[in-house]
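note to self: the first set is below, dont mix up w the second
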Amino acid sequence: MDASLWRDQMSLYEFEHAKRAELGIKYICGVDEAGRGPLAGPVFAAAVILPEDYEIEGLNDSKKLSEKKRDLLFDEIVEHALAYSIQSVDHKTIDEINILEATMLAMRTAVENLSIKAEHVFIDGNRVPKNMEIPAEFVIKGDATSASIAAASILAKVSRDRFMLEMDKKHPEYCFAKHKGYGTKLHYEKLREFGPSDIHRLTFLKKMH
């Protein structure tokens, strides 16, 4: 589903209000991931069911927000969401089944672990995980279209960043606090100097020169 027309005409919340009315349901779940591209650490996914009658001010795609704003919104989402679930798939599994399958696994697990069963699921991106037990559809650029996907993007991003900050304490030589595991110039320099750590995705390092 390409939601560009919705984005031009409707807010994040209006999109979901319209969908609830169209489908005759109450519980819409938004799902997004963080960490598909990094060279190290897990991929995270979050699933969120937001209340119909409460709007979180400033909610947006996590990539468009400052770290401080994401942290504030994280707390508000956790406080006001009807249900949320944050799951991760580690670097070893990513190496075993590939990053796409690991991402789909994290998304599906996040939905399955919600305390309230969703009636419909919106997945950010261009595909839906296999074997979903709940009706689901993908929403291209969903984190700029759907409030619940935007909320999920924040939960996933903040959770992964916090994990990588903990890994920075364990492996200070890689400077994870600065790049969160992404393939920056600094990160590649540290990899060449120290070799891979115990949280690096070895399948992502095959093209290193």
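second set (the one i keep forgetting abt)
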Amino acid sequence: MYFPTQADKEILKALMDSGVNISIEEKQVTVNAPLGQNGKAFHFNATDCPDLFPPLVVLASYCKGTTVIEGVSRLAHKESNLGKTLQEEFRKMGAEIELQDDLMMIKGGERLKGAVVQSHHDHRIAMACAVAALGAAGEMVIENAEAVNKSYPGFYDDLKLLGANVSLEAIKS
């Protein structure tokens, strides 16, 4: 079995710990079953990979139980205070996130709901909200969604290729 060494690829461990059935090969990762709301809560130390917090919060939001992620102190000096921003924006979708010392606790298992959320000009937040919207009930509007252009300009096009209903609208001033 192939286990990559790059810190961000630690997401594979979180996926396995949450119960997702995946196959890891040298040049590809295959998800064999959609997670839906059947995943289980997990514990993850993201101290050395703080950019994983947004996708981990999405995953945890759809897992039953309370997920604990360590390393929140590393999030204060990103484009936004990433810990507080995730808490604020995912609360709008119905997720319960508590920040305590260096821990983030996400109570998952309830279906997220569409909401008007703000990217805070942070590409990670915009992408996390878009991915969270894939399983949410109702429409999601992401203000300043163009923040994804910093790291992944084709993000929304790729979501469309995967079958997501994505509509990009310019803000009228």
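remember for set 2: Residues 36-161 form a domain with the UDP-n-acetylglucosamine1-carboxyvinyl-transferase; Chain fold (CATH 3.65.10.10).
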